[in-house]
Amino acid sequence: MLKHAILYPLFLVAGCIASLVGIFGGSFIWFLVVLLLAIGLTTWGAFDIRLGYFTPTFFRKKYNAEGRVALTFDDGPSLHTTEVLRLLKAYQSKATFFCIGKQVLAYPHIAKQIVDEGHTIGNHTYAHPKSFGFLKEKDVVAELEQCSSIIYQTVGKTPKLFRPPFGVTNPSVAKGVQYTKQQIIGWSNRSLDTVTLQEDKIYERVCKKLKSGDIILFHDTSQRTVNVLKRLLPYLQKQGYISVSVDDLLNLHGYEK
């Protein structure tokens, strides 16, 4: 697996060598090659959470999944979360909700309902800033700690599972997560329910890629997602899948002890 801690010094050495070749050989083509490769790989690593390029991430259960998958929901709680919870209960399914701190403040009763019904709450930052990928380490830590504090004050549990907004990771996020001692959770099956307007396409996308051990990404913020779940949950049941929480699937601790 490609890792930033290993490749970064290698790129520095390669860049220095390429610069010397350019100075004494008259051509900087190799320096440009190294530079473009470093930029491309760093960008890929920042936006593809499955790589674990900057920090260890969990995005699926690779072995011994035994027909289990993990439904996850980001950006709530919202008024749509209650209907999601009703459907999960009807099909005896468990899920993980990566909650925004501000949303927990807005809907504390729904956050409590999530926990009371046996689901797991994870950290999704306090405000889900659009500039998350550009925050300094101290600001990343502040977002995580504030969200965790609100969740604790609301449900009496401090989450250990964290999903970064937009799935973005970088050195600041890596250091922030290390400081707060949380574990990054990605996904292996992305519904694209926030950008795809056609419910049929969302449903087909998830079902087409579905396999044991998947961590499936949804957002409990729209009726569109609720409507897809009305079809997906009976499909999972029919195909012999069972949805469990992420911590159950991966044998992790969902909360601080």
UniProtKB/TrEMBL annotation:
Pfam families: Polysacc_deac_1 (PF01522). Residues 67-244 form the NodB homology domain. GO terms for biological process: carbohydrate metabolic process. The chain crosses the membrane at residues 28-53. GO terms for molecular function: hydrolase activity, acting on carbon-nitrogen (but not peptide) bonds. Signal peptide: none annotated. The keyword Transmembrane helix applies. Keywords: Membrane, Transmembrane, Transmembrane helix. PANTHER family: GLYCOSYL TRANSFERASE-RELATED. This is Polysaccharide deacetylase family protein. It comes from Sphingobacterium haloxyli.
